[in-house]
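Bumping with the actual sequence this time:
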Amino acid sequence: MTHDQAEPPSPKEDIKMKIDDAVSSAEGQVHTAYDRMPQSLIGLSEVDREALNKKLVRKLDYTILPIVGILYILNYIDRQNLAAAKLQGITQDLNMSTTQFATAVSILFVGYLPFQIPSNLLITKISRPGMYICVAVAIWGSISAATAAVNTYSQLVGVRVILGVVEAVFFPGAVYYLSAWYTKRELGKRFAALYIAQQVGNAFGGLFAAAVLQLDGQRGIAGWRWLFIIEGSATVFIGVICAFFMPEFPHNSRMLTQAQRELAVWRIESEAGAAEGTENESAWSGFKQALSDPKMLLMILCNLLSQAQGSIANYFPTLVNSLGYNSTISLLLTAPPYILAGIVYYFLMYYSDRKNTVYFPIVTLISIAIIMYIIPLTTTNVGARYFSIMILPFASVGPQLLLYKTINLHLARPVAKRAVASALVNAIGGTSNIWASYLYYQGPHFYAAFGTLTACALLFILTITVYRWLVRRDNRYMDSGDQTLIAKAMKRGVTEEMIQLNWRYEMY
């Protein structure tokens, strides 16, 4: 057949050709299409590629995870130190009522929640996201240290709002940042590492607070003021140091060799159609796509319910103190539950990655949490109540790890959409921390708190089950081969690149 007689490509072939010809202009680099292996990798045997991949992941784990983990520890210490300060007299010194203290706790989220979305949109357009995160760490450390200077309730509220605005950068940014480097099979355990760091922060924060509060009265400064000064100053110092070591995106990372950089990009491209920092999708387009996806709306509701259950972290020292111990012993007793939670998180995500499952672990954890909520509602026995306190951190917060894993794998592309989705789910879900802060009264039973959390847990199970039905239905549509049904799945967030890759919703 002559060239003039050649048949035109089919629509599917035409799309494939366009994808193959696609290039990225990010930082002046040109990348191959998602399904074309770089020349530097083609010449390697399968064994050599696997060895190179293991070396790359090991380098990421030794560089990225420790930095992000340390920063998350600081994030939680600085966010939770107000709860520890309550046991050392901040409410008396500032003449705060119980309701005013609850407002001081919850007001942080007024600044924290709305700024997550613009921050995560911005981080997708910045060539050095690591530097962006570290600068935010140094700034919030300064603000946290400045809390030591407040003398009135109004001043405390003002500082807390500003602190929330700056801290909005970190968590959704860190979740997005990790998903830019790790594949879906690797991501679960790295999210677990992030949450393990959170629990270390909670545990260490209680122990550290118990030690620092012994400085009460030194140089005429109250113990709770020393707590803010020391923890805030340490955050500034460590944030500045980490800025020199935090890597960029895979395609422009200076810590990798050329072969490792190409492998890092190809690993992500081969899963989802594009690497981070290489798409030209506008932030506004990603925002609209995120809002139009019903899966994201269900994820928001799930996270609202999950964050409500996780609100116990904001009042954990108060819950432990209700057992009848003094403030120092209460702070020390907050450590073991968090250490246990960190251990459980590791095995939870190991199991999730190994079995490629999320739904059943979520339902199991929620069911355990419901039992733990009922215990303090029905008994004042110290042993039974502390057993409940030991289990609650991992049972009530554990589902959040699995939700963020779901978001980053089910709402993978475009990049801007995933960044918006991650921030929206966290931001709107985080509003639970505002209203839930007013539930923790009438100890030791805390009827309002544990009654509400039980209702949230039951609704959570229902919502995640509806989500499971929805994604399994879309998988059936994509498996059907019927273009009409495939089109329906694409209307709910599946891109053409994903279809070409034979992509499916997993873990449910």
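The tokens above came from a reply further down the thread. The two ends are 49 Å apart (CA to CA).
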